[in-house]
Amino acid sequence: MKVVITSTPNAAEPSYQNLEPILRYLLDLGNAIATDYRWGQDRTGYFCTLTYRIDKAAVLSKFTLPSDVYFSDSGALWCGATGCRIQFKSSSCE
Fold this sequence. Notes:
Largest sheet: 5 strands, mixed
Strand order of the largest sheet: 2-3-7-6-5
Order of helices and strands: EHEEHEEEE
Oligomer: single chain
Strand content: 25-35%
Radius of gyration: 12 Å
Distance between the termini: 33 Å
């Protein structure tokens, strides 16, 4: 059974919290955080930068994503409702 991801987290949670299960899964698969911090923030929202490309097929096989949580052309995972994203080193300049 797939894990359902919501467009937004609960009101008391940080805006990136709905992406946290995906991030934990990617880390369990062997990816790594490429910065000294888990989540950073810029003008578009929170972001986490990973060392390696995101395994899109693995994410889609494990999670059901709403239409506003999507992969960009460069492979970053965006949440349109919150502006948060999981990116990898070479996609971090989007």
